[in-house]
Amino acid sequence: MVLGNLNNLIALRTKYGPTQAFVVETFGRTAIHSVRVGMSHGADVHLGDFSSSYSAQLSESFEEAVPTDVLGKLPNLHYFASVSGGRRIKGRFQIIDPDLGVTAADRP
Q1: CA distance 79 to 88
Q2: Which one of 26, 34, 69, 76 is most buried, by most CB atoms within 10 A?
Q3: Burial class (CB in 10 A: 0-12, 13-18, 19+), 80
Q4: Is residue 12 within 8 Å of 6, Cβ to Cβ?
């Protein structure tokens, strides 16, 4: 019940099956469009015997927005997030170095 009431979800790398299933279900499915283009031409030894063709095919399939196997392979500090409004984000947490820009003379 608690997990179902979450408005925001941040998923780091996880290898635990039930957690992966929950994250995949939360992110839902998305449409994947693919275009297949074909072109051919041919000529004969006789002058004027030429043919050509062009074709394009658009197909759509619905796949998981975040595949299960990807959740177990995320690099360190990378995440997927689902925030209020249905927005999905793939991001990386920044490492803040407190000593960045500090010279040896500035240290106590």
Answers
A1: 11
A2: 26
A3: buried
A4: no
Distance CA 29, CA 13 (A): 19
Residue bearing tokens 């360190």:
76
What DSSP character marks residue 45? S
Tell whether pTM > 0.85: no
CB of 35 within 8 A of CB of 58?
Answer: yes
Name the residue ranges covered by the structural domains of the chain: 3-95
